[in-house]
Amino acid sequence: MLDTVKKLCALPGVSGWEDEVRDRILEQAMPHADEIGTDALGNLYIFKKGALTPAKPLMVCAHMDEVGLIVTNIDEDGYLRFDFVGGVDRRVVLGKRVFIGPDAVPGVVGLKAIHLTDAEERSSVPKTESLRVDIGAENAEAAKKKVRPGDRGVFDNTVYEFGDGFLKAKALDDRIGCAAMLKLLERDLPADTWFVFTVQEEVGCRGAAVAAERVKPGFALVLETTTAADIAGTEKGREVCFLGKGPVIPFMDKGTIYPRAVYERCTAAADRCSVPWQTKSWISGGTDASAIQRRGEGAAVLTVSVPLRSIHSPASVGCIKDIEALPVLAEKILEEMAREN
Amino acid sequence: MELREMIMELASRTGPSGFECRAAERARELLEPFADEISTDVLGNLIAVRRCGEANAPLVLLDAHMDEVGLIVTGYEGGFLRFSNIGGVDARILPAAEVLLLTADGPLRGVIDVMPPHVLTAEEKEKPLPIDKLFIDAGFTDEETASKRVPRGTAVSYAAPCFAMGENLLCGKSLDDRSCAAVLIRAMQLLSGRKLAVDVAVNLAAQEEVGGRGAVVGTYALAPEYALAVDVSFAREPGSPADKTFKIDCGALIGVGPAATRSVSDRLIALAEKKGIPFEIEVLGGYSGTDGDDILVSRSGVATGVVSLPLRYMHTPAEVIDLRSAEAVAELIAAWVVSFGEED
Hints:
The complex is a heterodimer.
Chain A: H1 2-10, H2 19-29, E1 35-38, E2 44-48, E3 58-63, E4 68-74, E5 80-85, E6 97-100, E7 105-109, H3 119-122, E8 133-134, H4 140-144, E9 152-155, E10 160-162, E11 166-169, H5 172-185, E12 193-198, H6 206-215, E13 219-227, H7 260-271, H8 289-293, E14 300-309, E15 316-319, H9 320-340
Parallel strand pairs in A: 3-12, 3-13, 13-14
Antiparallel strand pairs in A: 1-2, 2-12, 4-5, 4-9, 6-7, 6-9, 7-8, 10-11, 11-15, 14-15
Helix pairs in contact in A: 1-5, 5-9, 7-9
Chain B: H1 3-12, H2 21-31, E1 37-40, E2 46-50, E3 59-65, E4 70-77, E5 80-86, E6 98-103, E7 106-112, H3 122-125, E8 136-137, H4 143-149, E9 155-158, E10 163-165, E11 169-172, H5 175-191, E12 199-205, H6 213-222, E13 226-234, E14 252-256, H7 262-275, E15 279-283, H8 292-296, E16 303-312, E17 319-322, H9 323-339
Parallel strand pairs in B: 3-12, 3-13, 13-16, 14-15
Antiparallel strand pairs in B: 1-2, 2-12, 4-5, 4-9, 6-7, 6-9, 7-8, 10-11, 11-17, 14-16, 16-17
Helix pairs in contact in B: 1-2, 1-5, 5-9, 7-9
């Protein structure tokens, strides 16, 4: 599982450009699939038969895409103008390495020398419009040979374990969910299940919306990651959730009020599980569940998320125990929900 | 070894001011073939001397600093590490930065966590977080472990790779001033086998980023007659004023002004013109902001020139230099050293 997470995180997959991630997932899912499909947006559908065949199938989903940059224009002096794809706090890109476009051209988001700044500048965060990616091109012509507007930029892709059981990588959101699904696919399932690896979650859950229309699930389980603010300096009560205390099962987030009955059944099932779980103490974030819940005739939904520090940054941090607990909890929840379906 | 490789190797080593040993270790290996004497002093300066064989030959000092800006662990908040800066660090580059904790047992990884938007006020979101509101996450869950594994006073460097950007540019941390340390080794390479009229000392100086401390002591010990301070200066970059910056590929910057001895500046300019080495004149105000300021007034005075390499994004983990300019600086330095046998 951890190995899969590491491999998937290293791949580029900014929303709308999930191809490499999808190819790798398909390769790994293929041996376990009873049926495979894709659609116009780029979602990957893997169907696997289970012990039961309910009237409406179960659906499990995780998104393949990650936040990043998109080149909007090229300056005459060869620097790239860019915007963000998905919610990126612009403070996290200053002085960081990025890789641009299909050829992964290395570049950096420079910050001018501290010696040339005044106190006022140093106390403000530069606007996105004033930031540039430097790919070392001498002029626009040289730059255009390597990149073009519309190319995506991904954060540095180094992945490593550190400290007492922590993992650093970009795109842990949501390659962890994808890896957990691949793990589930290896297991015998309680009921027929569609595994959907979705696209474009970070720009409005677009993949999940059309996937729900196609699968028409009775119950959909979203495997995700979520913001943890359990860091030094955070006021007590605002931590949201804590690394090391297990995956998060929220009763509500900014996108979804999870059906209470489902929440209660699933958390009771989670209590019987060998791994810990927690809920969120702050209403924040949103997941593919928001789209699935309200598509077609609607569906029962639940999200299980691994808490991450510095989510949507080049250096997101997860706790390995939490990551490994995700498929364990997910399996328990599927068993529980298969009984009724 | 090629200049490109030397720069990449030295920039990949860690060496915040006062903790230069890892970088010095590698620099020593690279300098050794060109030196008759090599030593490290009490401050951490790495000093190599090549003798010309003539008794009472004048001593020429080539100085580039070995240290880089960095951070230092000052305390704990649970398992998280509090820190302060070593040298001029713009705190705006710190959120989500990856770092190396330079413990006695070897480097440990850490990252500087970002406060997510929901815990910040609207006003805070538009402001950079000051250093005292940032913490290093080294993956420890309690203070006891953190303080044992990473004691107070542990130096911290950026964990940023040095990599090629296009044909001629290199990007990485500590190119200020490791790139010039490599340039000095390159100059010694160029001088190798040539008969010289002067003894040449290379000081890869400690603690420049906190105020020329290594240069003060190293220059005193060497007592040179002439010196060049070789450091980085400002390359043109987005948002920086054109009148204070130079094109990254313009070659060597030759300092002119009270902070550089006029006769040295003049000779450097004449040599660059004669040899066709690309250069620009950099006008220095009262101070050059390099080790040259301390070298100039060492003992009873040293005839000192300031030669610089243009660099973008100074003091960030993503500094950028141009190899063509770096080679030009090395050629100019070598030509200057050789010129002592050719004069008048």
